[in-house]
Write a structure and sequence with these properties.
Blueprint: E1 4-9, H1 13-23, E2 28-34, H2 38-48, E3 52-54, H3 57-61, E4 68-71, H4 75-87, E5 91-94, H5 102-114, E6 119-121, H6 129-140, E7 146-151, E8 153-154, H7 174-190, E9 195-202, E10 208-216, E11 222-228, E12 237-241, E13 244-248, E14 257-262, E15 267-272, H8 281-293, H9 303-320
Parallel strand pairs: 1-2, 1-4, 2-3, 4-5, 5-6, 7-11, 8-11
Antiparallel strand pairs: 7-12, 9-10, 10-11, 12-13, 13-14, 14-15
The structure holds NADP nicotinamide-adenine-dinucleotide phosphate.
């Protein structure tokens, strides 16, 4: 079987973690990396064994030998980086949050369709075995109708004006960086809500340092989520139905542990699935499966799900009055 030739754009923190997963995946070829400087690209290529190092994203996009590009830049750069790759006919796996807003995402999808390329948000949570196990439990009906979800993602991160997380020009803020996970989990289970009740603490650069979101459904279901950089939470999740509930361990979006309980709080089953490499290999597997099958959209991370979660984030920001300078 031919290996899939991967290219990486951006050489920051997540690019390193992802490259480790690529290195641990038998049918992935670490082919090319691009940075805004040739030195950083070369040092990244040397560290992981990529064959080519490009000193600009544009140079990488000209390389037609690439099978798929992983975009690992700050949120505000995703739209331009994705468009660059797509217009050169390259398949794309783009980090979350995939664009700043749903309008940008529609344009990216239109371009992907026009150029007949594969495009997927790097929503690794949805590809992980534990998440899939939880979805199996829910779909089996064993916990009944889902009435409540609580999922948090809040980490204390000291304020640093240079960090992309705190910069509006980078698409910073807790909503796009962290809340995207609880929102994606809730949306996958309950779909689009009938009402959003939300507030945020907006910091000096006009981006949210913490936020609370409640989604209300006419079915009587509620979902509650807290995200931010100002406090540390346990970051676990509980999904509760009329017949029982499911817990997802700390760092619910990347946990290996989940448990199923009945209404009397008796544990019925537990799942503990250790990762093969570092957890990112499952989204790589999914990209490989799609490319080999010749499909342009992942069924695990479908475009409609990404688009609807983005539209929820648009609505939250509209309620808070938060806009990015690019908008
Ligand atoms: N899936 C996950 O678990 C996970 C975890 C963390 C982050 N992420 C996502 O991955 C993306 C990158 O996050 P990160 O934490 O890796 O960020 P980071 O450490 O700041 O790295 C971002 C990289 O993007 C490039 N870049 C391009 N334009 C830039 C700009 N204007 N300012 C700063 N860097 C720029 C830089 O690489 P060069 O200088 O080499 O071009 C930089 O090293 C974000 O979308 C984030 O949401 C995902």
């Amino acid at each position: 079987m031919d290996k899939i030739k991967w290219a990486v754009i951006g050489t920051g923190k997540i690019a390193h973690t992802f490259a480790e997963a690529l290195r641990g995946t038998d049918d992935a070829q670490l082919y090319a990396v691009a940075s805004r400087t040739k030195e950083r690209a070369q040092s990244f290529a040397d560290e992981f064994g990529f064959e080519k190092a490009y000193g600009s994203y544009e140079e990488l996009a000209e390389d037609s030998s690439i099978d798929v590009v992983y975009i690992a830049t700050p949120m505000a750069a995703h739209y331009d980086n994705a468009m660059l790759c797509i217009k050169h006919g390259l398949n794309v796996l783009c980090e979350k949050t995939v664009t700043l807003n749903s309008g940008q995402f529609r344009e990216v999808l239109d371009a992907a369709r026009e150029h007949d390329v594969f495009f997927m948000e790097a929503m690794w949570m949805k590809c992980r075995p534990t998440y899939l196990k939880v979805m199996d439990w829910i779909n089996s009906g064993i916990i009944g109708d889902i009435k409540y979800i609580k999922a948090d993602f809040s980490n204390f991160i000291p304020y640093s004006p240079e960090d992309r997380l705190f910069r509006s020009d980078c698409g910073g803020g807790a909503l796009l960086d962290l809340a995207v996970y609880p929102l994606t989990l809730t949306h996958a289970i309950l779909g689009m809500p009938d009402e959003i009740i939300t507030d945020a603490h907006i910091g000096a650069d006009g981006i949210d340092l913490s936020n609370h979101i409640t989604l209300r459904y006419n079915s009587g279901a509620f979902a509650s989520m807290d995200s931010g950089f100002e406090i540390q939470l346990r970051n676990n999740a509980i999904i509760s139905g009329t017949n029982g509930f499911i817990t997802m361990g700390n760092w619910f979006h990347c946990t290996c542990e989940a448990a199923l309980f009945d209404r009397q709080c008796r544990q019925l089953e537990e799942s503990n699935i250790p990762v093969r490499v570092n957890g990112y290999e499952y989204e790589i597997d999914e990209v490989h499966r799609c490319l080999r099958a010749g499909v342009k959209e992942s069924s695990m991370v479908p475009h409609a799900g990404t688009a609807e979660v983005l539209s929820l984030m648009d609505k939250c920001r509209a309620i808070w009055g938060m806009r990015f300078p690019q908008e």
